[in-house]
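Practice problem: predict the structure.
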Amino acid sequence: MGDLPARVNSIGYNTLDNFIWGINVLTNQVVKIGSNAALTTYSIPNLPAPTVSAYYNVGEVFGDGYLFIYSRLATRYYVVDINPARAATYLQLVDPTASYVLDAAPYGNTFIGASSLDISDIVYSSSNGLLNGIIDAQSATNAYRRFTIDPVTQQVTITPTTIAGGGIQNNENVAFGSIFIDQTPNTFYVFANTLGGFYKVNMTTNAATLVSTAPTGGANNNDGASCPNTLLVTSISGTVFHDPDAGNVNNSTGNPNAVPSGLYANLIGTDGNVVAVAPVNSSGFYGFDGIPAGDYHVVLSMTNGTPGTAAPLPSLPAGWANTGEFNGPENTGNTSPADGISQVFTVGLNSTEINFGIQQPPVADLKTYLVPNAAFSSTPPAGYPALSGYQSIPASSANLTGYPTGGSLSGSDPEDCASAGTCNTGTGTTFNIESINGSTELYYDFGSGPVRVDVTGGPVSIPNFDVTKLVIYGATGSGTGSNSIGFTYSMTDNAGATSSAAVYSIETESPMPVTLISFNIRQEGGIASLQWATSSEENSKGFEIERSANASAWTRIGFVPSLSREAVSSSRLDYNFTDSTPLGRRSYYRLKMVDLDGKYTYSQIRVVTSENSTITYAYPNPAADELTIDGLNGSEEIKVLDISGRTLIEGRNSDGKNKKTLNIRPLPNGTYLIKIQMPDGSSVSQKVIKKK
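Answer:
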C-alpha cells in the first residue's frame, strides 16, 4: 500500500497475475500496479491518446486476461491483451469480436444498441460473461438505469426501469465512479460520487440498499477493482444493555452499563447455522470482524455456538430476562418479541448497532403465618361479605406477623426496590394472584367495593396494591396440615417482567371448629331471642354469647354447650338463647365458638333495636348549614349522596357517640340522601333537603 506516482483510472483486477491493471489517465499507457503501489508502464500501439476532456475513466479485466478500456460518452471501446501466455497479442489491442486477434484500423469496437454510454465505471461478472454497471445520474436520457455490455458481441442492454431504493436517486446527481462485485449472487456494489454513499444493487430487482456512507463524504476521482473470487467483508457489532424500564433499548439504570458474564453473541446466517461467535464483555459490547456480505441475525445466549452448526437457543444467566432488541442507535426503538433474537439485518446496514436489552426480574416473597383461631372472625370488615362456612382475616391484621411488611404481599426487584420486601403495600407495585387454595376465598376492593378474586380465567392483577383492601377467608375445618389457608402470588416490575409464583400460607393453631349456617335474633316483648344452627362441629365445647351497646366493647352474658355427642358432627344442630334484659336503645350480639382446647372464633354480629325506642337520624330537615345525625351507637359510616348516587361527604361516627354533625354549607340547594352503614353491615337511609 502506498501513494501512486501517477494518476491512474480504468482499473481492473487480473486474476492471472494478482495485479491491478489500468490506464495512466492522460496517456495511452497501460499500467500494472504492485502491492507496494509501484507502477509498471506499457505503451500500447494504436491505442488513441486521450484528451483532457475525454480521458479513459472506465476499465475492467474480463475473460482470460483482457483489459476493457473506455472513455465516457465515446463511441468506441478498446480491449488490451494482458495475458503473457499469449505472446503474439500480449500488450496489444485485440478485437474481441473476431476471436481476439490483433485489432486493425479503425481500432476499437462500436456498441450495438447504443451509440455511447454516459458511465464512469463497470464490473465484470463471470457468472454471465457480461460487463455490468449503472448509467450516471447526470445522463439526460437513461440516468440510474442498469446496463450490461457483451464485449464480444458489442451488445448493450439498458433496463427499462431505474435502480431505486436506499435514497440512491436522492443522494446522487452526478456520477457513480466505482463499481465492484463479490461472490454474492446477482449483486454489484456502487459508490456514489457526490455524497459518498455506498450501495448494494440487486441485479434481478434493480433494488438498491444503502450499506454505508464514507465518513469524509464524496469523491469525484475514484475507481474500483474487484477480485470476483473474494467476498466483501465487514464488521458487525452491538451492545447488550442493562435495561430495566423495557422501553427503547438502552442503558436505563442511570449507572454505567454492566451486564453479567458468560454471555455470547452468536451470528446466524440465512441457513440457520452459526457463522461466528463473540463473547459479550462486562460493559455489554460484542463484535465480529471479517463477515461476508449477506443477511444475518444475532442470538444472545449462554451457549458458545459452533460455526457451521445449528443456532443455539437464546438464554440468559439465572435471574435475568430479555427486555428487547433493536437494530439501530441506542434509545431509538424496541422490536417485539423480547426473546434474545435480533431482527434480520444486511451487512453494512445498521450492522454496527445490533443491540439487546436485559434486566433482572423481580422476586415475590414467600409468606407463612401461624395465627390463633381467634384471628379469624365470622364478621368480616365493613363492606366485605359474610360467607357461609367461612371465617375471615384482613391481610392487614396485626396477627399476621414475622415479616417487616406484616401480612402484605411483598417482594424485591434489583432495579425498582433492591432490598428484600421493599416492594409492598403503598409502593405502586403490581401483584398478581396466581392460584387460590380450595379452602380459601379472597376479596379485594379495586375501587368500587370488594369483589371476589376469581383465578379460573388466569391470574388476577392488582395494580398499586393496598394491603388494607385484601380480606382472606378460610373454610371451617381448614387451617392446619395440608389444608392450610392461602394462595400463590407473583410480582410484576416496571419493565413488565413477572416473578415466579410465591406461596402465601396461613395456618391456625387448630382447625376452625364450627360451621355456622345461620344466626338470627328477634325482639319479643322486651326480650331478645337468639337462634343459630351449625352444619358441622369438630371438638366443639360450646358457644359464649356476648353483647355490646356499640359493637366494640363486649360482655359475656351466657354460655350454651355444644349439642354434639361425638368429636366430629356432620349433622345439623339447632341452638337458642334468650336475653331477658337487652340494652335500652340498641343491642349487638355475637357468638364466641369455643373448642375443647380453648381455641375460639367469632360469628357475625347481629343487632336488635328496642321496640320502644324512637330514632331520629337526621335533622333539621330542611337544613341550611349543618345536619345532625342522631340515634347512633357505634362506629357507623355516614355518607351524603346526591340524587345520582355520587358520594359528596363521608365520615365515621366515633365509638360510643350517639350524634354526629356534618357541615353541608358548601352543598348547593337540593335533595340529598343520607346513608348510614351499621357495624353489622346493615344500613338505613333518609332523604334530606338542603335549603338556605
